[in-house]
Model the fold of this input.
Amino acid sequence: MKDFAFATVAELSAALAARQCSALELTDAALAKIAAAQPTLNAFVSVDPDGARAAAKAADAARAKGEGGALTGIPIAQKDLFMTEGLRTTCSSKMLANFVAPYDAHIVTALKQAGTVLIGKTAMDEFAMGSSTETSFFGIVHNPWQPEAVPGGSSGGSAVAVAAGLVPAATGSDTGGSIRQPASFCGITGIKPTYGICSRYGMVAFASSLDQAGPMARSAEDCALLLTAMAGHDVRDATSLPHPKEDYSRELAQPAAAKPLEGVRIGLPDAFFGDGIDAPVLAAVEAALVELRALGAATVPVSLPNIDYSVPTYYVLAPAEASSNLSRFDGVRYGHRAAQYTDLFDMYQKTRAEGFGDEVKRRILVGTYVLSHGYYDAYYLKAQKVRRLIADDYQAAFAQCDVILGPTVPTTAPSLGAQMQDPIQMYLNDIFTIGANLAGLPAMSVPCGFTPNGLPIGMQLQGPYFSEARLLNIAHRFQQATDWHRRTPKETRHA
Amino acid sequence: MALSQNEIQRVAHLARIKIDDAILPRLQQQLDSILDMIDALSKINTDGVAPMAHAQPLALPLREDRVIEPDRRDHYQQGAPAVQDGLYLVPKVIE
Done:
């Protein structure tokens, strides 16, 4: 078999269709690469060789009969907060270290039905709370571009698995930037769709009004293929939108024109180009704007006057929802239970003290506090009102432009350990991503350059509700004209 | 807004998380810095603004009132720490 390392989903799909390789060969290659990379990168929590080979054989059989679709036989990884029946789902927490889910999450079922081969489950910040994947109970995860740098988070394991060429695509979840920020730090493409597009059924809840699943892959074209399979109404999630099924690749197939982005108005919020952005990040995003203008897009200044308040708003609402959601981990129905306790209350408090890590406990305490008697109006209700102001700002901006663009993160990947002593600094780095979660808008990160030290830089596209196909098309046209998304880390290129 | 160590223990009690006194000073510092950051919200005028609870203005959907889930109790209880006769076991709460 030809070496398909760093091939895209679209390329692998074509190779499978042309019988240049089999799903079983791709699966065995992925399993071998994961085993070789695990000691240095630690991207996976669980790998399922037997299940993956069985699924690959079924995919090969389907293709031999002329059945299946674009994703039939494509190996993928699932972030370890999507429940997978029979394969443990840990949320990278001691609390769920041995938890085996009794059913599949909606998106797991959907991707299986589309013919993908589930290889394993990727590491994350514990319960998706973090921006560096350093809070995983199963050890830190390393950035393949620079092993001393964090991969970002919370979907860090998925970002690393794709960036290092272990699998062509993976899933992530995004509550405040957890798909886009690690995608930016690892040089891959990831999209958080409109809230309600992907069912949250079987996705372990962090902050239910913000959580949204999405794909992470090597290109916008691949993200479109995966999102088409993942999206869709599901009655088992009361917040799943009754939105008609879409083919998110539909605009990508249109023939390339000299100016494919003619007529697209890109809004540039002053707040996304202000102080505090690393010089190489700003330079790369500005260079991308030159490219996008050459492709025909026009840029217009827009304003998001309350966006600076998105971080404090998020750090009221997300912990509040988390404190409620994580109350289910009490040592009674599933997960860890303390070995020694005096009574029921003591069992609860010791189970939770032992099962949760420091960051999760901090957020539960903050959430419990802002919801407690006497503080609800000052914090929680206030934050819900500011959330409305931020969402309204976006609607006003989209009256003047089709999409909004800026850096995904003000910085590139920090060094391991740099942020663990100062949670506030880590929180503030989510300044550009959180707004889309608060407003429920689709947003994606697209590779657009590198620092002189070789760390990837990402730009973010945000759009109005249900504009995924347009965002993916803009990113795709940019990727047809550039090769940032096809660069690969040196460490793995010659491995 | 500073939290006293007593208040932290009260919140920890509400959250059912045992906090050792030894880590209280550091935790107090961290929570204070988070609450300081959050306090920025008090500077914004939100008079007349309706709170936004959710990203989409959805009403809870209704469905026909019939059983749609099969009984999978045994399957669901396989991961429980302690089960007997289909029931979850916890320390005695009634004397």
Summary: Chain A has 16 helices and eleven strands. Confidence is low (pLDDT under 50) at residues 491-495 of chain A. Residues 9-261+467-493 of chain A form a domain with the Amidase signature (AS) enzymes fold (CATH 3.90.1300.10). Chain A touches chain B through 71 residues (CB under 8 Å).
